[in-house]
């Protein structure tokens, strides 16, 4: 469960997967969501878990389909694993893939507790995620269980059937609908999400080849570089990431970031002062950090300035030079 005074973060990939599915199967468009479309070009950016959970609830409202997350998990596309697919698919057996998936869960979202226990002939994969919105809990649980079942089917085939799935939250959908989708019994209102399957199946070797054109994937080395994610109560690092997220909505403000952290602006300001740093300093560093990352792209200086919240190229250039001692144009020339 979520801890008080903690701000949990999640990769944008999770939101992109939901919106892509909603647009493909329910005829929704980006206009139906209060999120800038260009945000989803950066799947590994971090966003507040509260925004993802609000999105989960909004999609259920818009689609009028409580089972939409369960249907999403049944896709045979490896895109469900995002850019980490190579890390999973390169595993020599299911046991190695499960260990890697557990690591990936901690790279996709902060505050996750995930493990696997052996109980006699049964293996029990378990995951507990912090929940900010109670009504989103069941959808998070279904997505977690569904991704693990997809991993089992990746190694054992699409006809593979788990022993039982435990889901956190009240029953959704029509009677028996979720059971039919997962093709196994469901236990509702579990304290955590669990997938039970025969322990002997862990040793199953990899018999498939990765269809590389299907998804742009990381190498194992690239994937490992994203294994660290700010801890929920590390205020300074969380604020730094949220100012980067705020850039997609305009120039970062104290009010925007404080709202995402569930506190009053004055409270956040005081917490930063306790660490001898001003919010404006964090914003300045975030903007310059994002700007330098975009310098190697095909975007013009004007487009980069707009992307990081500046209305004019001149004001952006002044701020950039204050940080790096050179103008954006001069900096870009050093990259050639």
TrEMBL record:
Any one GO MF annotation of this record: DNA-binding transcription factor activity
GO CC terms, sorted: cytosol
Ranges for domain HTH araC/xylS-type: 253-334
InterPro entries for the chain: AraC-type_N, Homeodomain-like_sf, HTH_AraC, Tscrpt_reg_AraC-type_HTH
Keywords noted in UniProt: DNA-binding, Transcription, Transcription regulation
Protein name: AraC family transcriptional regulator
Organism (species): Aliivibrio finisterrensis
Highest classification ranks of the organism: Bacteria, Pseudomonadati, Pseudomonadota, Gammaproteobacteria, Vibrionales
């Amino acid at each position: 469960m979520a801890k008080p005074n903690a701000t949990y973060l999640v990769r944008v990939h999770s939101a992109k997967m939901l919106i892509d599915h909603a647009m493909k199967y329910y005829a929704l468009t980006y206009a139906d969501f209060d999120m800038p479309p260009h945000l989803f070009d950066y799947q590994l950016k971090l966003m507040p878990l509260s925004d993802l959970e609000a999105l989960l609830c909004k999609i259920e409202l818009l689609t009028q389909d409580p089972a939409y997350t369960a249907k999403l998990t049944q896709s045979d596309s490896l895109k469900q694993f995002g850019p980490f697919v190579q890390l999973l698919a390169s595993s020599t057996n299911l046991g190695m893939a499960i260990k890697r998936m557990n690591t990936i869960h901690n790279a996709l979202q902060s505050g996750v507790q995930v493990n696997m226990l052996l109980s006699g002939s049964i293996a029990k994969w378990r995951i507990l995620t912090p929940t900010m919105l109670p009504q989103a809990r069941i959808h998070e649980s279904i997505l977690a269980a569904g991704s693990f079942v997809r991993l089992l089917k990746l190694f054992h085939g699409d006809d593979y059937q788990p022993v039982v799935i435990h889901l956190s939250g009240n029953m959704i959908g029509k009677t028996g609908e979720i059971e039919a989708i997962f093709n196994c019994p469901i236990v509702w209102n579990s304290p955590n999400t669990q997938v039970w399957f025969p322990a002997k199946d862990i040793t199953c070797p990899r018999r498939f080849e990765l269809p590389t054109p299907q998804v742009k994937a990381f190498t194992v080395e690239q994937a490992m570089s994203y294994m660290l994610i700010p801890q929920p109560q590390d205020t300074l690092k969380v604020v730094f990431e949220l100012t980067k997220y705020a850039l997609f909505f305009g120039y970062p403000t104290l009010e925007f970031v404080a709202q995402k952290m569930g506190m009053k602006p004055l409270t956040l300001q005081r917490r930063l002062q306790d660490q001898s740093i001003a919010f404006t300093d964090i914003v300045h560093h975030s903007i310059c950090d994002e700007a330098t990352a975009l310098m190697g792209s095909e975007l013009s200086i004007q487009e980069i300035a707009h992307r990081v919240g500046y209305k004019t190229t001149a004001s952006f250039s002044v701020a950039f030079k204050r940080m790096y001692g050179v103008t954006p144009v001069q900096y870009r020339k050093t990259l050639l």
